């Protein structure tokens, strides 16, 4: 009898212990570096995708040397190259900037026809109806028009992001089924992440995607998760340490995001 109890106690400890070790709970953002670091050209990857995947199955970001746009969806991670090619991400690749989480939506809504990005944002605003929390967003639908961009891989010395985006590749898709994923962040994240909406797109056939610039939608389903946990990992590299990250780069960000 005593042995049975002891075994039970040990089992409970093991289960509890393993829960503590995995640590990352649902809807907790795990972010690598800061958006100002990316704007300042800190493009050296810090965390491998093998590690990033341990902190989420959903997210957006970029790759070592700014080699394209990242989309993570249902545990699968994709790289949209500046050629337009969409590739599954190799675990050994590193990211200099990414935000991921284990997506567990609490709100689901049907979206009717949406004419443009502004109208999409208004529709999402009416669902979110809040200014102070973070939100993860997923929209599955039939998109009549999608315009995305990707950025070419850089070599050192790295140029600031506003310089690189001058050479971005732009893609347009029509009547495509796919998924928009990303985040809405409150204004106070300025410098850390992107205030407002930051969305990426990937088609159902996983052949088209990128950082979202324009969109119109016939119909879709939106899923939203409110986030109250935010975890950030900062690079140890010298270029991060030496970058001037305390300035207000919001104008640069606006230029780089569009
Ligand atoms: Zn983006």
What is this entry, summarized?
The chain has 7 helices and 14 strands. The chain is α+β, with helices and mostly antiparallel strands. The chain has one domain (24-257): Hypothetical protein, similar to alpha- acetolactate decarboxylase, domain 2 (60s Ribosomal Protein L30, Chain: A), CATH 3.30.1330.
Residue-averaged pLDDT, rounded?
Answer: 93
Percent of sequence in beta strands: 35-45%
Distance between the termini: 68 Å
Distinct small-molecule ligands in the complex: zinc ion
Number of domains: 1
Number of helices: 7
Please identify the top-level CATH class: Alpha Beta
Q: Strands of the biggest beta sheet: in what spatial order?
A: 6-5-4-3-8-1-14
Backbone CA Rg: 19 Å
Q: Which structural class fits the helix and strand makeup?
A: alpha+beta
How would you spell out the order of helices and strands? HEHEHEEEEEEEHEHEEEEHH
Uncertain residue ranges: 9-21
Per-chain topology:
Elements: H1 2-22, E1 28-32, H2 35-39, E2 47-48, H3 49-52, E3 58-62, E4 69-73, E5 76-80, E6 86-88, E7 94-95, E8 98-101, E9 107-111, H4 117-128, E10 134-150, H5 161-164, E11 169-185, E12 196-203, E13 209-227, E14 229-233, H6 238-242, H7 250-257
Parallel strand pairs: 1-14
Antiparallel strand pairs: 1-8, 2-7, 3-4, 3-8, 4-5, 5-6, 9-13, 10-11, 10-13, 11-12, 12-13
What does this structure look like?
This protein is an alpha+beta fold and 258 residues long. It has a single domain (24-257), classed as 2-Layer Sandwich (60s Ribosomal Protein L30, Chain: A). The chain is built from seven helices and 14 strands. Strands 6-5-4-3-8-1-14 form a seven-stranded mixed β-sheet, with no helix packed on it. Strands 9, 10, 11, 12 and 13 form a five-stranded antiparallel β-sheet that branches. The protein has a two-stranded antiparallel sheet with strand order 2-7. The longest helix has 21 residues, at 2-22.
